[in-house]
Amino acid sequence: MAAPRKIEAEDLRLSYGAREVLHGISFHIEANEIFGIIGPAQSGKTSLLRCLNRTIEFTPGATTSGAIRVDGHDVRRLKNVYELRRRIGMVAPLPVGLPLSIYDNVAFAPRCAGLTSRSELDGLVEQCLRQAALWDEVKDRLDSLGTKLSGGQQQRLTIARALSHQPEILCLDEFSIAIDPVTTMRIEDVLKELRRSVTIILVTNLTQQARRLADRTMFLWNGEIIELSTNEVIFSDQPKDRRTYEYVNGIFG
Amino acid sequence: MAAERAMELLIKLCGFSAIVFVFGIFFFVLREGLPMLPRLTPGNFLFNFEWDPSASGSPKFGVGALLIGSVSVTVLAMVIAVPFGLGAAVFVSEFCGRKTKEILKIVIELLAAIPSVVWGFIGMSVLGPVITTVFHVPLGSNMFNGAVLLALMSVPIIVSIGEDSLKAVPDSYREAALALGATRWQTVYRVLLPAAKNGLLAAVLLGVGRAVGETMAVLMATGHSARIPHSIFDPVQTLTATIAAELGEARQGSDHYQVLFVIGVLLFAITFVVNLTADLVVKGIKRKSP
Amino acid sequence: MSAPAIAVSPVPFAQTRHARKKQRAERVARCFFGAMAGAMVIPLLLIVGYVVIKGAPAMSWEFFTANPRRGGAAGGIWPALVGTLYLIAISLCVSAPVGVLAAVYLNEYAKDNWFTRIVNLAVVNLAGVPSIVHGLFGLGAFVYAMHFGKSVLSAALTLSIMTLPVIIASTKEALAAVPLSFREACWNVGATRWQTIRRIVLPNSISGILTGVILQVSRAAGETAPVMLTGVATFKAIEGSGLFLYNPFSEQCMALSMHLFYIRTQASGVKEELSFAIAATLLGVVLLVNVTAILFRLFLRSHKKW
Predict the structure, then answer these.
(1) Domain total for chain C?
(2) List of chain C residues whose C-beta atoms are within 8 Å of the C-beta of residue A83
(3) In whole angstroms, what separates CA B94 from the centre of its chain?
(4) Would an 8 Å CB–CB cutoff place C117 in contact with chain A?
(5) Rounded to a whole number, what is the distance in Å from the CA of B58 to chain C's nearest CA?
(6) Chain segment A94-123, per-residue pLDDT in tens
(7) Are C268 and C191 in contact (CB under 8 A)?
(8) In this structure, what DSSP letter does residue C253 have?
(9) Which residue of C has its CA nearest to A155?
(10) Domain hosting residue A174, numbered range
(11) What's the rounded Cα separation, in Å, for the pair A15 and A25?
(12) Identity of the residue in C140, C257, C265 whose CB atom sits nearest the CB atom of B115
């Protein structure tokens, strides 16, 4: 029997109260690929990510049905939801620096998981900050407040935090909104490195970014999958669906 | 995970405790007064104006005069407090500079912090002599004295909630009025007060709740005499003061003791209704505001 | 044809009579409302000043540290100060933790259902209960039903029930001031609800929580009705020193608030300046605690972490 796909969604439905936002979608994501998700605003992209790490549960009135599986196990049936969230790194669109020092920001997740050794934390913090392309800027002021950094720096801090618990799956939700193009490129290079050990889901409004980085891309619109193909197909002149072409080329969206 | 569950349970218990205490208050107060309850009809309790519980032979448990005492001193207090309180709220919210606003708000907070026994003392030792000299009445401790004290005690609540509800009126209303050439006063009178009337009503209700429930100040400054007053300078006796003054002497379990607890239940019910109404009025605004 | 409602001046933007009338009305209004506000400030200052001035002569070292004499009608107020301190300390030990955790429940855990709405309603109503009814409750529940008798413990517990709802309300406000985005960032990295609360939410709201608790301390210090029925005596001298001056389960104590009440309404042959001195002391304690809380709040506002 073939090994289970890394991530698999089967007829996933999500409703906020009476309003359905995901209409029974099914897709799969392979291990160690960069999977892009593109689509206009309010399509359900962020909601989909929140179903994956079950932070959807914090929204009152949200109900899900169908299955969403990681390594073959339905995430909704997992007993230890915190361990699930540690296996998935989540980078939200709006940068959030916790009101702690920069060091403590990155050490927060490992400490919650039980890691206390100072030397190990030091190494982890440096590694994550380097990967987030932030180390050089903050290495001399690791105990200054995370909330006092600029927007772009806070976003990179969020990325470092997402990496700090060494996730197998990394979800980036429009990570480059608050970051300048040069830094974005640096982080994209890091992502290309990371994919060797991590499965990456890249939700982005910038179709060019998906084009650069992803192996396969899914076009999600109004809670439905319009098309899911390899990048060669999706970004070509002849994608499977006419609407994909129109969205990618800016005719709507 | 177990520690997390234990903490969560402890937290939930504490949250539940608030309900337990409110019902607990009602329960324990009712419990002590319960035996007396069937014997008290509206006729011989609420509308009876003779309060003479320690009369041997046939003690009278008519709280009518006490109710009138509580109501009259509260109403008079509100007559004083509402105009000053709302006026001050308007001033703080619309007419005043930032520095003055900070200072005024601190003063109001300090005014609210003065304990009621100190107010009672002030009523007896400071206001009383002033009243007898200025108004030429024999007794300084009377309804008027108590009402002035209650007014000073309720004004902070009226000002702070009143100011909150004026602040809640969107600036667009003010800007629109000013653009039409209205002065600040006209804006307040024609636009803001009507728009904030729910919140201002709630502010007054909460002030009333505070005044009705007040004990020490009225005990000390109203003259404490269970008779129907004929002028504002007559002494009165409130429900609250009656309990405070007489419970010490009433033997535990006696009729007098139990009636005092029933009065406690009555007070609880009155303030419950007043506060509930105020809360609903405030919720009404919160739902309506954009 | 009638004249236009607004006078049109031949020179544009010049002061018309109408405009000048409006400005005068505006000034009058400002003065009027200012006077309303002033009507609160001035009595406060006058009263506090008068009480302090009349009481100052009696406020000697002996006044603060000696036991009362003649059944409380003369002498010092040391036991009353100590008793008040005990009452506050014991009542805080109950109301602070229970209040803070109840607020944590309401703000962090409670779902938006009918149960939560009832709890919130209960808190609001608990806050509005008259102080004498709290005294009745203390009498019925702690003194009699739980057989603690008239004691420091009964009085302190009555005070804690009285201060509980406001501690809950102000703690809730402090917790709600911590942005949701912080909590979401913690959940995303796998922190549990309690870890999030313990490491981020509580440390960043502790200042607001403390302010609320401090303000309730001053309220507990000043209240008479809840404690006069449940465990405060009009006269009880203290001999000796040390930490455990009372057995809270069996002994009563004096309290500053009750002492003022007794001196002014029941004791006879009391020197007038003595009663003013006690009033001034109580006023001083309460105002001092409140001013501390206000300064603390101002200090915090300038040291915000986000």
Answers:
(1) 2
(2) 190
(3) 26
(4) no
(5) 25
(6) 888 899 999 999 999 999 998 989 999 999
(7) no
(8) B
(9) C185
(10) 7-248
(11) 13
(12) C257
Torsion-angle region of residue B251: left (phi > 0), alpha (psi -120 to 50) or beta?
beta
Contact: C188, A90; criterion CB under 8 Å:
yes
CATH code for the domain in which residue A105 is found: 3.40.50.300
Q: Domain ranges in chain B? A: 64-288
> Which alpha helices (DSSP H) does chain C contain, by range?
17-55, 61-65, 78-104, 114-127, 131-138, 152-176, 180-188, 193-196, 206-222, 225-228, 256-265, 272-301
Domain assignment of residue C33, given as a range: 17-57
Kindly list the residues from chain C whose CB atom is less than 8 angstroms away from the CB atom of residue A98. 182, 185-186, 200
Mutation target for C interface from A108, A111, A158: give the one with most C CBs within 10 A. A108
Residue B51 DSSP code: E
**Closest residue, chain C, to B106 (C-alpha):** C294
* Residue C175 and residue C42 share a domain: no
CA distance C34 to chain B (A): 6
pLDDT digits (tens, 9 = 90+) for A5-39: 889 999 999 999 889 999 999 999 999 999 999 98
Closest residue in chain C to residue A110, using alpha carbons only: C189
DSSP E strands: which ranges in A83-142? 88-91
C-beta atoms surrounding A189 within 10 Å: 12
DSSP 8-state class, residue C243: S
- Do residues C124 and C87 both lie within one domain? yes
What total number of domains does chain A contain? 1
- The structure tokens listed for C183 are 């909590």
Give the distance from residue C214's alpha carbon to the nearest chain A alpha carbon, in angstroms: 25
Residues forming beta bridges with residue A91, ordered by sequence position: A172
Give C204-243 pLDDT, tens digit per residue.
999 889 989 999 999 999 999 999 988 887 777 776 666 6
Query: What fold does the segment set B64-288 form as a domain?
Result: MetI-like fold (1.10.3720)
Q: What tokens appear for A51 in the block?
A: 């179903």
Interfacial C residues in 180-199 facing B (CB < 8 Å): 192-195
Contacts of A53 in chain C (CB under 8 A): 188
Residue C264 domain-assigned (yes or no): no
